[in-house]
TrEMBL record:
It is found in: Endoplasmic reticulum membrane. Its EC number is 1.3.1.21. One of its GO terms (molecular function) is 7-dehydrocholesterol reductase activity. This is 7-dehydrocholesterol reductase. One of its GO terms (cellular component) is endoplasmic reticulum membrane. It is an enzyme of class 1 (oxidoreductase). Keywords: Cholesterol biosynthesis, Cholesterol metabolism, Endoplasmic reticulum, Lipid biosynthesis, Lipid metabolism, Membrane, NADP, Oxidoreductase, Steroid biosynthesis, Steroid metabolism, Sterol biosynthesis, Sterol metabolism, Transmembrane, Transmembrane helix. It is a multi-pass membrane protein. GO terms for biological process: brassinosteroid biosynthetic process; cholesterol biosynthetic process. The chain crosses the membrane at residues 15-37, 110-132, 144-161, 200-220, 232-250, 265-283, 295-315, 378-404. Its main location: endoplasmic reticulum. Belongs to the ERG4/ERG24 family.
Amino acid sequence: MVVKEEKTQMVHSPILTYFSMLSLLSLCPPFVILLWYTMVHADGSIYQTFDLFRQNGLQAFYDIWPKPSMTAWKIIFCYGAFEAALQLWLPGKRVEGPISPAGNRPVYKANGMAAYAVTLITYLSLWWFGILNPSIIYDHLGEIYSALIYGSFIFCILLYLKGHVAPSSTDSGSSGNAIIDFYWGMELYPRIGKNFDIKVFTNCRFGMMSWAVLALTYCIKQYETNGKASDSMLVNTALMLIYITKFFWWEAGYWNTMDIAHDRAGFYICWGCLVWVPSIYTSPGMYLVNHPVNLGIQLSLYILLAGILCIYVNYDCDRQRQEFRRTNGKCVVWGKAPSKITATYTTSSGETKTSLLLTSGWWGISRHFHYLPEILAAFFWTVPALFSHFLPYFYVVFLTILLFDRAKRDDDRCRSKYGKYWKLYCQKVPYRIIPGMY
């Protein structure tokens, strides 16, 4: 078993690391409920929710926290079982992931786009033929989030125990600290049997898929409540669905990213994808259900086109790097041969390997340029809410902090991995995210 050293996870100081972990473990669950309550029952007003707590103290938490209902558990179970079945049984191309630190190469079945299409068609068909009204999901949303909070916490405990007693590969081990092991995870590639990859399920088939399902749910709920869907809701829903479609079209590339190839399966990734993604990432649409905004055709089109452009640039950044890696640098980037650095590194088993670092195209502008259009895309699917309240923009703020922190973690990991080659890379591409600024 490969032992994960604690220092490999601490890209910040130990005190800041422990404070961040304990804060997120304790504050994220109640924040999910607070955001839902404020969006749905407090007119989106932070002040109204604050006033409730000012008058009632912590008793307000008990009053507003919904108890997981049987309906909520049924919805979660049926949805999860449906997505698990699609992940296992839909045909897909065999795709190999990157070689892990322990020398393992995971194998996946790339059927995400098919699962996405089947999910949306099934969901819309159930609504169209009167079999399932999506309003039921919206009306039980608080109970669903409450059930997800508790159920996903138990799920992460089981992942922690599995990492101790039945790891799926040698890419597992303990840091010697139970809090770090629970938060960051024990296993890099946990699986049930040989074919069911747990992180693909939590990150892609439950988390990202639920984002699309809830986006449609909010739009349909507004339509059924008001007799029409506002242009602001339509722009919000369209941009989120385009972004998620891009994600599943590119899903095999996602398996090469930090989330899958470097971050282990613990509270940070798995609870985040099971609870935080469905609740926080969808929150602009949740707000718009009860706050329809009339943008007008011209402004709607401007926002829609700007959002689509950002999503395309984000996709093209990833496509460019993926093609560069697939061809081992023998491709064309913006009409000419790519500029690159050939870097060598040593694996944990002592083997010397080579990587190519792309320094032209989008990747010559900044080292993580693809994060910039992703943040801007999130802004454009939120801005239809306009500016009456701050809370719809929480996701944009959160995403900015998340991606800036991820860029730092990725830089620190690459600096440790590539040494002098990474220093040379940073000299050629000096900016981390924002060209000319950062």
